[in-house]
Design a protein that fits this description.
With 191 residues, this protein is an all-beta fold. It is built from no helices and 25 strands.
Length: 191
């Protein structure tokens, strides 16, 4: 009486070829460790191994699912995790990129496709400052340089005719001005 070996599982969607890391033939009482094709991983509910006994695998098969994506790491000034969705991003969903306070992402979203993010990376760039808005008697935009003032740049404050800014210059650092605002005071009251 001879003991029969097992053939590897057939017709497992998105499995590698061969579908077992041990090869195409599994010996009696041997184990098949399932292998999925690139971009796929074993489904959470799938067995981690199949055992050969008397020519039949138990369980008989396994399932492969589209691989999730890992949030990018080692990005200067990025939050941890760098995706709003967490450390893992589900296939076909998006990673909303996150940076530390004072920085903005170069790309707002990354799309997860079979274990790969597209685009693969992003940068965290120094945030610019928006010209003050709503200052009584200020002109629009309130900065001589325009509505957006770059990081480490100066806003020269502007007031309507007959008024003078309480601070002539506002310095932009990582999205915040120093001083944070200015007032427009009548010229005859300016100090």
């Amino acid at each position: 009486c001879t003991v029969q070996d097992c053939a590897t599982p057939a017709d497992v969607a998105n499995s590698a070829d061969p579908p077992c890391s041990q090869g195409s033939n599994i010996h009696h009482l041997g184990v098949c460790t399932p292998v999925c094709a690139d971009g796929y991983v074993l489904a959470d509910t799938s067995p981690r191994s199949l055992t050969c006994a008397l020519g039949a695998l138990e369980p008989q098969g396994f399932q492969c699912a589209a691989a999730p994506c890992v949030s990018p790491v080692d990005i200067f000034y990025a939050d941890v995790p760098s995706c709003n969705e967490g450390s893992l991003v589900v296939h076909s969903s998006q990673c909303e990129t996150r940076c530390a306070t004072g920085y903005i992402p170069s790309v707002g979203t990354l799309t997860c496709s079979f274990g790969m993010l597209v685009p693969a990376l992003f940068e965290c760039l120094e945030a610019a400052c928006l010209a003050p808005n709503g200052t009584l008697h200020a002109v629009s935009p309130a900065c001589k340089e325009g509505s957006v003032i770059g990081h480490k740049s100066i806003c020269h404050a502007r007031c309507s005719f007959g008024y003078k800014p309480s601070a002539a210059e506002l310095f932009c650092v990582l999205g915040d001005f120093t001083p944070p605002f200015f007032n427009c005071t009548p010229l005859d009251q300016a100090v």
